[in-house]
Amino acid sequence: MSTNVPSESNNKLLAAEITLQELLNEPYKFVPSHIRKYTDHLPQDKPMSIEEIAQILNTQPFIVSRLIRALSLSSVNEDETWLNISVVQKLIRIFNSTIDVRCLLLFKMLDANNDHYVSRGELSRFYTSCLETIKYVETSRVPSVIEILLKRYHLNKKRRIRFDEFYSIVMNDEILLESLAIFTDFPTWVSIVKPSPVRQNIIQRYFMGCCQQDYNNEELTRKITFDRLKDNVPRVIAVLLYILVNIALMLYVIIYRVVVTKANVFVVFARIGGMLLNLNCSLIIVVMLRRSIFLIRATPLHRFLPIDDHIDFHKFLGRFIGALSILHTLAHAINFGITKGYSWPVFMFTTRPNVGWIGGFAPLSGVILCIILLVMIICSMHWIRRGGHFQVFYWTHLLYIPFFAFLIFHATNFWKWAIGPLTLLFLEKLYSFCTRYWANRGRTYLLSATIEQSNVVSLTIHRPKYFTFKPGDYIFINIPQVANYEYHPFTITSAPEELGYIRVHIQAVGNWTKKVYERFKIISENSTSGGAFHVYRADQRAAVNVNDKITTISINIPIECEDQGGGVNDNLSGSSTTDEMVQQSREKIILNGPYSTCARYIFDCNHALLIGAGIGITPYASILSSLMVQFRENRVTCNHCQKVNYPEKNLWDNQRLKKVDFIWVTPDSKSFEWFLDLLCQFEKDQAEYLKSNTNKSRFLNIQLYFTGIKENRSVDQVLRHQVTNIWADEMGSDIFTGLKSPTNFGRPDWEKLLRSMTSGDNSSTAKDINVFFCGPKSMGKKIQHHCVDFGIRYYEEKF
Fold first, then answer.
1. For the EF-hand domain, which residue ranges apply (predicted)?
2. Are 149 and 40 part of one and the same domain?
3. pLDDT value of position 672
């Protein structure tokens, strides 16, 4: 080093050098036990490559190579095959040493030519290589990041800096100092190589799953408390009533068949199954009356009926009907085998014994019913519905029509049980058929489509005159150009206040959705096609600065040219021929709905915690859009200075909802740039509102979690911490999303998160908080588990 280095910094350097050399020369027997336990399972003398060491340290080979070169752990001829596990132990010791040693280590890593200086070029090349290797920052943004880092290390004004300058910069910079402090904990981030799991066959996996399910049920049972029962009174009453009715019917059949008719045991079991099938086959219709549930949700009755569980109850009833059918069929089959007069095949497959109330058709219709039910159950399995074969599920589920027809022919008294539900079902289907083909309600056309990132397409559809919906509602969409008779459900992502159009986002995961995506992608590549609508490519647009407003190109819709009747304005064409051509070139869309979900309750609670995972954020897009419209409707713009102001009266005095926390868990933000645009606009509007009302608190808090980047204490995190926090400090926005809210990495700690919301100065009580979740079922179970612990009401949107 130069002789003009101040004595204090010189002493710091000397002390750090001595400590560093002591750690490098430390014998194995003096290595602390908490470090040895992470490496004792590995061979001590086996040569290791840089890639293997990088895997153990949970970092990149480039960084390990820099560390080894900076610490002179490799031979002069660059032959690094002699490296062994002692290198890992030494690096771990250095990482957990003093701040001065870690600062010296970072300086040596940046000093590529070992001339005791860090130059502008060395720092640029190091961080450029890191960013390109770790790949958590877009390539187009790397030069801007490097420019900010050079400014932070004062290399925008100097060509190079010594260690004393480097040390002073780090010690006086809170972000740089905090990044070096990451390694103060024990090295729990080290990857421990675990033995490969023993392969299990399908039977072993099944019983292991059953045991795990039993364990989960036991855990759930232990958590059933009076408070939980009190919060779920409608569910408890419905379950108890359902169980009691089934037991009562079963006792009635036993008493009647044993005492009155003196039937044998197999007939008794068959009649029990038949009676319970009458009840449950009627109920399975009731729980899927979407229009009736939609109307109930709009009334206070939804507080007394567990209508949010109707899909789960429908699935349970389907399984229970399958079990009852097996009982009913086996009992009758055995009874036919012991009954004299006809052979068993004659009983089962002919009408000669005259069993039943319509021409002896009962046994044969029972066989047909078993076949239909088996097909429906198999095609309703999760691996078919979610495995890209939704059409198989959809079309086979339409077998419910012949199923109920044959069931009426099969069972003498079933029509008495089913006449009410079937009548309601018929009226709902008739209403749905009439509305979806009515031009002012369901029959409409496409205005524009946008190809988003990661196989997502957004459709902007002309909103019919009498089509009304609430935030969080969903619709069934039919695109005749893709498939004439298929309707698929999608959540509306636009706000009800946005007149003239509705928008949905479709992710290409199944056969039908892939066809939709490919159709509009092909149209976008053919400039001569498209007709009366446009297809935009948001996935191919040039990268924009994160501080700029992220815009979705398909928002500019020519709505002003549509009249109230949904037709084309006369100004577009002066001739009827042109008008007919425009009509024919439109992409026809048929809407069925809307239908409501538990998201409608968001505006009825004080504090809403919205949790979305991946594409599960779509229900909240409409809700946040609606809230943003309410923000804008209450602002006042001065005619003289054009300054935006908000009235002194609280914006939320007229509604119950006072606070919203939004948590979004996603692998990355590239898939949902359209949603980031909405969040950016909301943050901007909220900032203007808080500026005009300094005595008010934030209404919306945003927390983003990127699971594609894991939160671990490694060298990668030190560099990521520096880059992300320095960028946010300099630019005032997050480097990944452009939001003011910072991005978190890994999965949320749900227990810690919920505790923070129920404790502190601005916390809410558990009774005021309502959690709304839309995403994978496994994540929902974890969140629900913690909500039960805290006494927080939990809602989950099934999809």
1. 98-133
2. yes
3. 67
